[in-house]
Specification:
10 helices; 325 residues
Protein backbone atom coordinates (compact mmCIF):
# COMPACT_ATOMS: atom_id res chain seq x y z
CA UNK A 1 0.00 0.00 0.00
CA UNK A 2 1.23 3.52 -0.80
CA UNK A 3 2.44 5.25 2.40
CA UNK A 4 -0.14 7.70 3.72
CA UNK A 5 -2.89 6.50 1.41
CA UNK A 6 -4.73 4.65 4.19
CA UNK A 7 -4.90 7.83 6.29
CA UNK A 8 -6.71 9.82 3.62
CA UNK A 9 -10.43 10.42 3.83
CA UNK A 10 -12.78 9.75 0.99
CA UNK A 11 -14.64 12.80 -0.18
CA UNK A 12 -17.95 10.99 0.20
CA UNK A 13 -17.17 10.55 3.91
CA UNK A 14 -16.67 14.26 4.60
CA UNK A 15 -19.29 16.22 6.51
CA UNK A 16 -20.72 19.47 5.19
CA UNK A 17 -18.49 21.39 7.61
CA UNK A 18 -15.39 19.54 6.37
CA UNK A 19 -16.36 20.17 2.76
CA UNK A 20 -16.64 23.87 3.48
CA UNK A 21 -13.29 23.85 5.31
CA UNK A 22 -11.70 22.04 2.39
CA UNK A 23 -13.03 24.68 0.01
CA UNK A 24 -11.58 27.45 2.20
CA UNK A 25 -8.12 25.89 2.34
CA UNK A 26 -8.20 25.19 -1.41
CA UNK A 27 -9.03 28.81 -2.23
CA UNK A 28 -6.22 29.95 0.07
CA UNK A 29 -3.72 27.62 -1.60
CA UNK A 30 -4.71 28.75 -5.09
CA UNK A 31 -4.31 32.41 -4.13
CA UNK A 32 -0.79 31.65 -2.93
CA UNK A 33 0.02 29.83 -6.15
CA UNK A 34 -1.19 32.75 -8.26
CA UNK A 35 0.91 35.17 -6.20
CA UNK A 36 3.92 32.90 -6.74
CA UNK A 37 3.29 33.03 -10.48
CA UNK A 38 3.00 36.82 -10.34
CA UNK A 39 6.27 37.11 -8.42
CA UNK A 40 8.01 34.82 -10.89
CA UNK A 41 6.80 36.83 -13.90
CA UNK A 42 6.88 40.38 -12.55
CA UNK A 43 10.32 41.39 -13.82
CA UNK A 44 10.11 40.06 -17.38
CA UNK A 45 6.33 39.88 -17.92
CA UNK A 46 4.67 42.65 -15.86
CA UNK A 47 1.36 42.47 -17.74
CA UNK A 48 0.99 38.74 -17.08
CA UNK A 49 2.02 39.31 -13.45
CA UNK A 50 -0.84 41.81 -13.11
CA UNK A 51 -3.25 39.14 -14.37
CA UNK A 52 -2.18 36.68 -11.69
CA UNK A 53 -2.33 39.41 -9.02
CA UNK A 54 -5.95 39.97 -10.02
CA UNK A 55 -6.73 36.25 -9.97
CA UNK A 56 -5.22 35.95 -6.49
CA UNK A 57 -7.49 38.78 -5.31
CA UNK A 58 -10.48 36.93 -6.75
CA UNK A 59 -9.51 33.80 -4.81
CA UNK A 60 -9.18 35.90 -1.63
CA UNK A 61 -12.69 37.26 -2.16
CA UNK A 62 -14.21 33.81 -2.58
CA UNK A 63 -12.28 32.50 0.43
CA UNK A 64 -13.66 35.33 2.57
CA UNK A 65 -17.19 34.51 1.43
CA UNK A 66 -16.66 30.87 2.33
CA UNK A 67 -15.31 31.80 5.76
CA UNK A 68 -18.38 33.94 6.41
CA UNK A 69 -20.60 31.04 5.37
CA UNK A 70 -18.74 28.71 7.73
CA UNK A 71 -19.00 31.16 10.63
CA UNK A 72 -22.73 31.48 10.03
CA UNK A 73 -23.39 27.74 9.95
CA UNK A 74 -20.69 26.19 12.14
CA UNK A 75 -18.92 28.90 14.12
CA UNK A 76 -15.44 30.43 14.12
CA UNK A 77 -13.33 27.25 14.42
CA UNK A 78 -12.54 25.91 10.94
CA UNK A 79 -11.36 22.26 10.79
CA UNK A 80 -7.90 21.71 9.36
CA UNK A 81 -8.40 19.74 6.16
CA UNK A 82 -6.45 20.17 2.97
CA UNK A 83 -6.27 18.61 -0.48
CA UNK A 84 -3.63 16.08 0.55
CA UNK A 85 -5.96 14.78 3.28
CA UNK A 86 -8.62 13.66 0.76
CA UNK A 87 -8.20 10.63 -1.49
CA UNK A 88 -8.72 11.40 -5.15
CA UNK A 89 -8.76 15.17 -4.67
CA UNK A 90 -7.09 17.09 -7.51
CA UNK A 91 -3.44 17.89 -6.83
CA UNK A 92 -1.52 21.09 -7.39
CA UNK A 93 2.00 21.26 -8.77
CA UNK A 94 4.51 22.16 -6.00
CA UNK A 95 5.18 25.90 -6.11
CA UNK A 96 8.96 25.48 -6.29
CA UNK A 97 8.54 23.92 -9.73
CA UNK A 98 7.36 27.30 -11.04
CA UNK A 99 11.00 28.12 -11.71
CA UNK A 100 10.99 25.44 -14.41
CA UNK A 101 7.83 26.62 -16.17
CA UNK A 102 7.74 28.86 -19.22
CA UNK A 103 5.30 31.73 -19.58
CA UNK A 104 2.90 29.65 -21.68
CA UNK A 105 3.20 26.73 -19.26
CA UNK A 106 2.25 29.00 -16.35
CA UNK A 107 -0.76 30.35 -18.24
CA UNK A 108 -1.81 26.80 -19.10
CA UNK A 109 -1.28 25.66 -15.50
CA UNK A 110 -3.57 28.42 -14.20
CA UNK A 111 -6.29 27.56 -16.71
CA UNK A 112 -6.01 23.91 -15.71
CA UNK A 113 -6.30 24.82 -12.01
CA UNK A 114 -9.62 26.56 -12.55
CA UNK A 115 -10.94 23.83 -14.84
CA UNK A 116 -9.97 21.07 -12.38
CA UNK A 117 -11.60 22.85 -9.47
CA UNK A 118 -14.82 23.44 -11.38
CA UNK A 119 -14.97 19.84 -12.58
CA UNK A 120 -14.27 18.47 -9.11
CA UNK A 121 -17.01 20.48 -7.44
CA UNK A 122 -19.52 19.56 -10.16
CA UNK A 123 -18.66 15.88 -9.72
CA UNK A 124 -18.78 16.13 -5.93
CA UNK A 125 -22.21 17.79 -6.04
CA UNK A 126 -23.60 14.69 -7.76
CA UNK A 127 -22.31 12.39 -5.01
CA UNK A 128 -24.06 13.98 -2.02
CA UNK A 129 -27.70 13.62 -1.05
CA UNK A 130 -28.09 16.59 1.28
CA UNK A 131 -29.71 19.48 -0.56
CA UNK A 132 -27.69 22.11 1.29
CA UNK A 133 -24.38 20.45 0.56
CA UNK A 134 -25.37 19.89 -3.07
CA UNK A 135 -26.17 23.59 -3.43
CA UNK A 136 -22.90 24.54 -1.75
CA UNK A 137 -20.84 22.43 -4.14
CA UNK A 138 -22.80 23.75 -7.10
CA UNK A 139 -22.07 27.30 -5.97
CA UNK A 140 -18.38 26.48 -5.70
CA UNK A 141 -18.37 25.06 -9.23
CA UNK A 142 -20.03 28.24 -10.46
CA UNK A 143 -17.44 30.29 -8.59
CA UNK A 144 -14.61 28.44 -10.31
CA UNK A 145 -16.26 29.02 -13.69
CA UNK A 146 -16.50 32.67 -12.70
CA UNK A 147 -12.78 32.69 -11.98
CA UNK A 148 -12.12 31.61 -15.55
CA UNK A 149 -14.36 34.39 -16.84
CA UNK A 150 -12.55 36.86 -14.60
CA UNK A 151 -9.23 35.62 -15.94
CA UNK A 152 -10.44 36.31 -19.47
CA UNK A 153 -11.44 39.83 -18.43
CA UNK A 154 -8.06 40.42 -16.81
CA UNK A 155 -6.30 39.21 -19.95
CA UNK A 156 -8.33 41.66 -22.02
CA UNK A 157 -7.51 44.47 -19.56
CA UNK A 158 -3.78 43.89 -19.07
CA UNK A 159 -2.67 41.89 -22.09
CA UNK A 160 -3.53 43.56 -25.39
CA UNK A 161 -2.15 42.11 -28.60
CA UNK A 162 0.91 44.35 -28.58
CA UNK A 163 1.80 43.51 -24.98
CA UNK A 164 1.18 39.81 -25.58
CA UNK A 165 3.43 39.91 -28.65
CA UNK A 166 6.18 41.66 -26.67
CA UNK A 167 5.99 39.08 -23.87
CA UNK A 168 6.00 36.24 -26.38
CA UNK A 169 9.12 37.69 -28.00
CA UNK A 170 10.78 37.88 -24.59
CA UNK A 171 9.83 34.28 -23.84
CA UNK A 172 11.12 33.14 -27.24
CA UNK A 173 14.39 34.97 -26.68
CA UNK A 174 14.81 33.33 -23.27
CA UNK A 175 14.10 29.91 -24.79
CA UNK A 176 16.75 30.50 -27.43
CA UNK A 177 19.34 31.71 -24.92
CA UNK A 178 18.72 28.94 -22.38
CA UNK A 179 18.05 25.91 -24.56
CA UNK A 180 18.63 26.47 -28.29
CA UNK A 181 21.96 28.31 -28.21
CA UNK A 182 23.82 25.91 -25.87
CA UNK A 183 22.08 22.93 -27.43
CA UNK A 184 23.13 24.05 -30.92
CA UNK A 185 26.71 24.60 -29.77
CA UNK A 186 26.70 21.10 -28.32
CA UNK A 187 25.20 19.55 -31.46
CA UNK A 188 27.79 21.27 -33.63
CA UNK A 189 30.65 20.18 -31.39
CA UNK A 190 29.38 16.62 -31.08
CA UNK A 191 28.62 16.24 -34.77
CA UNK A 192 31.74 17.88 -36.19
CA UNK A 193 34.51 17.34 -33.65
CA UNK A 194 33.88 13.59 -33.42
CA UNK A 195 33.93 13.07 -37.18
CA UNK A 196 37.71 12.86 -37.45
CA UNK A 197 38.35 10.37 -34.59
CA UNK A 198 35.39 8.13 -35.47
CA UNK A 199 36.12 7.86 -39.20
CA UNK A 200 39.87 7.70 -38.61
CA UNK A 201 39.28 4.73 -36.31
CA UNK A 202 36.86 3.22 -38.82
CA UNK A 203 39.28 3.28 -41.78
CA UNK A 204 42.32 2.45 -39.67
CA UNK A 205 40.80 -0.70 -38.17
CA UNK A 206 37.88 -1.49 -40.47
CA UNK A 207 36.37 -3.05 -37.34
CA UNK A 208 32.81 -1.82 -36.69
CA UNK A 209 32.81 -2.73 -32.98
CA UNK A 210 36.10 -0.95 -32.28
CA UNK A 211 34.85 2.05 -34.22
CA UNK A 212 31.65 2.10 -32.17
CA UNK A 213 33.65 1.99 -28.92
CA UNK A 214 35.79 4.91 -30.08
CA UNK A 215 32.68 6.84 -31.11
CA UNK A 216 30.93 6.10 -27.81
CA UNK A 217 33.94 7.23 -25.78
CA UNK A 218 34.41 10.37 -27.88
CA UNK A 219 30.70 11.30 -27.73
CA UNK A 220 30.20 10.74 -24.00
CA UNK A 221 33.50 12.40 -23.12
CA UNK A 222 32.71 15.42 -25.29
CA UNK A 223 29.20 15.63 -23.82
CA UNK A 224 30.46 15.66 -20.24
CA UNK A 225 33.13 18.23 -21.09
CA UNK A 226 30.76 20.53 -22.98
CA UNK A 227 28.07 20.26 -20.31
CA UNK A 228 30.37 21.23 -17.46
CA UNK A 229 32.03 23.95 -19.53
CA UNK A 230 28.71 25.55 -20.42
CA UNK A 231 27.38 25.38 -16.87
CA UNK A 232 30.57 26.85 -15.39
CA UNK A 233 31.06 29.56 -18.00
CA UNK A 234 28.16 31.80 -16.98
CA UNK A 235 25.78 31.81 -14.00
CA UNK A 236 23.20 33.64 -16.11
CA UNK A 237 22.71 36.50 -13.64
CA UNK A 238 24.24 39.28 -15.75
CA UNK A 239 23.88 37.78 -19.22
CA UNK A 240 20.25 36.75 -18.73
CA UNK A 241 20.95 33.40 -20.40
CA UNK A 242 19.07 31.48 -17.74
CA UNK A 243 19.88 28.61 -15.44
CA UNK A 244 23.43 27.23 -15.85
CA UNK A 245 22.07 23.75 -15.07
CA UNK A 246 19.57 23.91 -17.94
CA UNK A 247 22.20 25.25 -20.34
CA UNK A 248 24.69 22.60 -19.24
CA UNK A 249 22.17 19.81 -19.72
CA UNK A 250 21.18 21.13 -23.16
CA UNK A 251 24.79 21.41 -24.29
CA UNK A 252 25.93 18.09 -22.83
CA UNK A 253 23.01 16.03 -24.11
CA UNK A 254 23.13 17.49 -27.61
CA UNK A 255 26.91 17.04 -27.80
CA UNK A 256 26.54 13.37 -26.92
CA UNK A 257 23.69 12.88 -29.39
CA UNK A 258 25.63 14.66 -32.12
CA UNK A 259 28.51 12.21 -31.80
CA UNK A 260 26.41 9.12 -31.22
CA UNK A 261 24.42 9.74 -34.39
CA UNK A 262 27.24 8.56 -36.64
CA UNK A 263 28.72 6.13 -34.11
CA UNK A 264 25.59 3.97 -33.74
CA UNK A 265 25.67 2.66 -37.35
CA UNK A 266 28.88 0.81 -36.45
CA UNK A 267 26.83 -1.59 -34.37
CA UNK A 268 26.15 -3.14 -37.80
CA UNK A 269 28.74 -5.92 -38.34
CA UNK A 270 29.31 -5.14 -42.03
CA UNK A 271 31.92 -2.37 -42.17
CA UNK A 272 30.96 -0.80 -45.50
CA UNK A 273 27.20 -0.90 -44.81
CA UNK A 274 27.83 0.77 -41.44
CA UNK A 275 30.12 3.36 -43.01
CA UNK A 276 27.66 4.32 -45.76
CA UNK A 277 24.88 4.69 -43.19
CA UNK A 278 27.15 6.71 -40.90
CA UNK A 279 28.02 9.10 -43.74
CA UNK A 280 24.31 9.49 -44.54
CA UNK A 281 23.65 10.29 -40.87
CA UNK A 282 26.42 12.90 -40.94
CA UNK A 283 24.79 14.60 -43.93
CA UNK A 284 21.44 14.72 -42.10
CA UNK A 285 23.10 16.06 -38.92
CA UNK A 286 24.91 18.85 -40.75
CA UNK A 287 21.81 19.99 -42.60
CA UNK A 288 19.82 19.86 -39.35
CA UNK A 289 22.38 22.22 -37.80
CA UNK A 290 22.04 24.56 -40.77
CA UNK A 291 18.26 24.58 -40.36
CA UNK A 292 18.46 25.29 -36.61
CA UNK A 293 20.92 28.12 -37.17
CA UNK A 294 18.70 29.65 -39.82
CA UNK A 295 15.46 29.10 -37.89
CA UNK A 296 16.44 30.16 -34.38
CA UNK A 297 19.69 32.10 -34.68
CA UNK A 298 18.73 34.03 -37.83
CA UNK A 299 21.96 32.98 -39.52
CA UNK A 300 21.71 33.46 -43.31
CA UNK A 301 21.20 30.11 -44.99
CA UNK A 302 24.24 30.31 -47.28
CA UNK A 303 26.55 31.41 -44.47
CA UNK A 304 25.34 28.56 -42.27
CA UNK A 305 25.83 26.12 -45.14
CA UNK A 306 29.41 27.23 -45.70
CA UNK A 307 30.22 27.18 -42.00
CA UNK A 308 28.65 23.84 -41.17
CA UNK A 309 28.33 21.64 -44.23
CA UNK A 310 31.61 22.53 -45.90
CA UNK A 311 33.47 22.60 -42.59
CA UNK A 312 31.99 19.24 -41.57
CA UNK A 313 32.86 17.74 -44.94
CA UNK A 314 36.49 18.83 -44.53
CA UNK A 315 36.67 17.28 -41.04
CA UNK A 316 35.11 14.07 -42.37
CA UNK A 317 37.60 13.95 -45.22
CA UNK A 318 40.48 14.54 -42.82
CA UNK A 319 39.36 11.61 -40.64
CA UNK A 320 39.07 9.27 -43.64
CA UNK A 321 42.48 10.32 -45.00
CA UNK A 322 44.19 9.95 -41.65
CA UNK A 323 42.62 6.57 -40.95
CA UNK A 324 43.20 5.23 -44.43
CA UNK A 325 46.77 6.49 -44.76
Amino acid sequence: MIPGLASRRRFSDLSEREILALAISSEEDDARIYRSYAERLREDYPASAAIFDGMAEEEDGHRQSLIEAHEKRFGDVIPLIRREHVAGFYARRPTWLVENLSLEDIRGEAEGMERQAQRFYEHAAQRVSDAGTRKLLGDLAAAEAGHRATADELVAEHLDSETRAAEDRTAHRQFVLTWVQPGLAGLMDGSVSTLAPIFAAAFATQDPWTTFQVGLAASVGAGISMGFTEAASDDGELSGRGSPLKRGVASGVMTTLGGMGHALPYLIPDFWVATYIAIAVVIVELWAIVWIQNRYMQTPFMRATVQVVIGGALVLAAGILIGGG
